[in-house]
Structure formats: structure tokens, C-alpha cells
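Z., the sequence and structure:
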Amino acid sequence: MISFTCDYNEGAHPEILRRLGETNMVQMPGYGEDEFTMAAKEKIREATSCPQADVMLMVGGTQTNSTIIDAMLSHYEGVIAVETGHIAVHEAGAVELGGHKVIALQGEQGKLRVKALRQWLSDFYADPTWPHMVQPGMVYISFPTEYGTIYSKDELADIHRVCADYGLPLMVDGARLGYGLMCPEADITLEDLARLCDVFYIGGTKVGALCGEAVVFPRGNAPRHLFTIVKQHGALLAKGRLLGIQFDTLFTDNLYFRISRHAIETAMKLKALFMEHGIPFYIDSPTNQQFPILNTQQMKRLKGKVAFEVWQKLEDGSAVTRFATSWATPAEDVDRLGKYMWG
């Protein structure tokens, strides 16, 4: 059985495991005060060209989203996201559990459109009863989106401009950030991202790490007492060195970007394979998530041999499926997929 179900099927990059092993008995302070975490933060500041950035290492995406959103919002505020956004669908109401409504707007191919955002905000404040409502406190987007699409630099700049006009911070969920930055269609760099949002995170869980997300407040604009807030949410790792060593490794010799590029290369090979055999796609994704539409016979051929996700059943019996590659996907797995499907 080969699996394309997600991009965290594997454990961690061998270099991370090596570093964890060789530093295992070195005594270090806890809670991120160790030298490995300090080094990782400095490397991230250098990579983002933000020497003044506040960097906080956390364990996973849902934990990061819910904690940072709660830290940045007042108790009467909600967060704007597209209806397919991760915080709106696949985080089990974690943001709402923290007391903040997810204000879901209709997106387009997984993306928040600037026109829709500006119109919603204009309509909200044109309503004289708005003080009775949950007020917008921030805007959340994913890069790449949950459908593998990416924002252009102009699109991100336009969204940031609307946020600035209304005094709203812009948060970018970067759980798959490396895969977005390394796809050929991307015209956004890590430095651009730091310039065009108020907080973002660099995903490690899905890009080579055992676990971990690096939250970046690029202008040193972290909320007051963030460390204490993270602790209050049960999100502060006592053995912070675990996260520090991993991100220190990922940001040495461009490892994060090199392994991200590998995922894109295998995804494009997979995409070309489906296209060669006339398989239609639900959406044109340039990143590591691909969404071919397979009929029942095609899915039956793969049963027990290839694992993938079914995202949406269609009326004719076919289904929108998702095939995800990762930093560790062997190119040979794509060849095996082709043999299983077409012989």
C-alpha cells in the first residue's frame, strides 16, 4: 500500500532525527530558553529579513491557530475566514471554544477575494445595529489554501490594504507554507509575506518536522504577555528544545525550502500522469495537493493498493479525490500509482 492521503504520513527528515539523537543528553533549560531554540529564532529572523521579529514555536496547527487568534482578539471579536478555511471546517470548533466566532465568507477556489472582504466590512459598519453584533477583529487566510491554491503578491497586498483600512490584523496560516513558496507559480517570497501580514506561521509538521509551527510577528508586534497566554492555553512545551532543534535544522542550508520543492516536483509528476490519461481535475492546484475526479471503476482499481482521500461525492457516482505529496514522497510512488491504475 502506498499513501497519498496527507503530507504528514512520514515521521521527520533524517537530518532532524540525527540532530535530536546527537543532542539528546545535552542539558538545556526548558520552555524555549535553550540555545537551539534561540538559534532557530535567529535563523527565522534572518530568512524573513525581520531582525526585530517576535518568534514563538508551538506544536501543531490547530493549537497555533486557536491560541494566536485568542491572544490577538478582544472577547467581543470574531475572525473573518473563507467558508473552506481550516479554522472554519477542520479544527473542531477550536476557535469558537476560545470564545471567538469564525465569520465565514464565500471564497473562490479556496481563496478570500478582496472585493468580497471589502463589501462585507462596508455592509457591516453601514448597519446601525453593528454594536449588537460580533465585531470583526482580524482576517485569516491560508497559504496555500485548503484547495492547494495560492495568492499572488498583488492579491495579498490588496487584502492587506483592506485590513489596514479597517484596522484589522491579517493572519496567514502557513501550515503548508513551504509548498506554497516553492511552487513555480508563486511570486511571493518569505520576505514579502512578512511585509504583507501581521502574523504568520511557518509550518513544520507537514514540512519535514516531527511536529512544530514557528509563529512570526514580523514587526515585533506580538500581543503583550504572549508567553503567558500560550502557557494558559496549555500550548507551552516544557521541553522546548524539541521544537528548537527541528527548526534550527530546517533553516540550516535551506533544508526547509529544498524539501518543499521536492514535494512540488512529485506533485507535478502526479498531475501530469492524471492529465496524460484524460483525468479531469476539480481545481487547478499548483502545489502539493491535487484533486482529480475519479469514477467508481478507477477508484476500485486503486482499492487496497493506493490510499487517498475522497473529498466530495458527485451525482454521477464519481468523486473529487485528494492526492497529497510531501517532502518525503518517492517519485517511484507516482510510477506505482500509474501501474495500478492503467497497468
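The longest strand covers residues 135-142. The chain has a mean pLDDT of 97.

Let me know what you think.
H.
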